[in-house]
Target: Single-minded homolog 2 isoform X3
Amino acid sequence: MEKRLSTVIRRHCLVAHPPFFTEIKLSFNSEKYDSQCKYQSFINLTGFNIKDVLGKSAYLFVHGGDMEYVAKAHKEMVEKNIVIEIVFRSTTKSQGIYFTSSRTFVIRDNWTEKPKMIIAVNHVIRI
Model:
């Protein structure tokens, strides 16, 4: 009598459930500000003064070819309440291009659950 051995293959899928708020640690070379709002490395890179950008939409500085991609990612972030990480082209005052890596998330009102503000931590990708 022949004995047949059956093989059982088990596959497991691990699913991580991150907390709602993800702490983002800034590296030593991250852009910092002081009480006089001096962002010297930003000014050197982009050519914009802080007065040129404060109060303006961040979309004004996104390259036109990446506008739809960035807007779609932001919309998904707000609708699904997720942290997004994207890379896109940004423009300088003289219409030059540099690449930005952005990690963005939404802060919501505790009572209404409506978006209160969007926080983005951006880094320039050196090529």
About this structure: The helical segments are 40-46, 50-53, 67-80. The mean pLDDT is 75. The CA atoms of residues 38 and 105 lie 25 Å apart. The first strand starts at residue 84 and ends at 91.
